[in-house]
Structures are given as structure tokens and as C-alpha cells.
Amino acid sequence: APIDLLSFISLYKKDWQEHGYLTLNGVSDKAILHKLECYPHLQTPILCLDNDSTGTTATNRISEKLKQLGYDNVSQLLPVYKDWNLELQYERAILREPVPEIEDTLELSP
Fold it and tell me: Whole-structure pTM over 0.70, yes or no?
């Protein structure tokens, strides 16, 4: 998540210091809800999670929750590739061939 945030800022540098950024470190809404509670002047959240089934499901869920809390200007921005770091790598021509699809779920060995 932090690398994706840094990648996002690298892609969208214009006036980046004038905006607030937050990494969710997953798909929980706790961090964004806390941030918005602490900084009530923030009224236009833009959700930029991964472009996979987990990320898009979480984006839709968080977006709906924010709208229920009165945030009418919730936006969503998805990377073309799976995440913002891959987007940056393609943008900078670090990767020249498509990355194979990665499963949304990982199986961990005991």
C-alpha cells in the first residue's frame, strides 16, 4: 500500500502537496473514516484502490458508506493495471511486456 501511494503521487505530481493522501494498508474503511472525522474540511474523497476484484469490491463498499455519511462527492480512480506501482512501471517503460494475471487470493503455507 505505501509503495502504491508513492507510485500514485509520482504519476499525478501536479499540486500533490495541496492534497491529503492516505494508505488503507488493505481494504478496511477504518483509516479513511478516522481521517475524515479528524479533518472535517476534507469533503471530496477519491478512492484509488487496486484494479482487481478485491479492490473494486472494497472501493464500491467504501464509496457507498461514505455517501451514507454525507460525502456526496466521492470519486473512484482505478489504475489500468492491477495497482498503481505497475501503472508507474509501465508509464516509465520499466516493464515492456504485460504482467501475467495474479490471483486475487493467496494461499499461505503453514
Answer: yes
